[in-house]
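Whiteboard transcription, Tuesday session. T.W. wrote the C-alpha cells on the left side:
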C-alpha cells in the first residue's frame, strides 16, 4: 500500500484534490510521479521542459541555410535531423504568412 500524505504542492490536475495523493515512482527524466487515489490519474510534479530555445533553433536554421545538410546540422548541434527539418518548415511557413499579410 502506498503512503498517502497531504502536501500542498500536490494538487490533482483533474479533480483538484489535495488529499489522497501518493508517490508513484519517477519518469525517465527523474521527475517525481504521483497518483490521485480519488480519480485514479497519474501526473508529474513540475515536469521538465523539453523544448529547445529560440536561439538554438535560429542558429540551426542559419547553419542549414549556410550550406550544411539537415543531418549535418543535427550532428553538429547534437539533436535530431527531424527537428532541423521541422524548424525549417515552420520558419518557411511563418515567412510566407508574413508575406501574405504584407501584400494585403
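and on the right, the sequence the group agreed on:
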Amino acid at each position: 500500500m502506498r503512503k498517502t500524505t497531504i502536501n500542498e504542492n500536490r494538487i490533482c490536475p483533474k479533480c483538484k484534490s489535495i488529499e489522497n495523493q501518493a508517490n508513484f515512482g519517477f519518469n525517465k527524466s527523474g521527475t517525481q510521479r504521483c497518483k490521485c487515489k480519488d480519480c485514479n490519474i497519474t501526473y508529474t510534479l513540475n515536469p521538465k521542459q523539453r523544448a529547445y530555445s529560440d536561439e538554438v533553433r535560429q542558429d540551426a536554421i542559419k547553419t542549414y541555410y549556410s550550406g550544411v545538410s539537415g543531418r549535418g546540422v543535427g550532428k553538429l548541434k547534437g539533436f535530431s535531423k527531424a527537428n532541423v527539418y521541422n524548424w525549417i518548415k515552420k520558419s518557411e511557413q511563418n515567412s510566407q504568412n508574413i508575406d501574405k499579410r504584407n501584400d494585403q
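Someone added at the bottom: Residues 23 and 34 are 5 Å apart (CA to CA).
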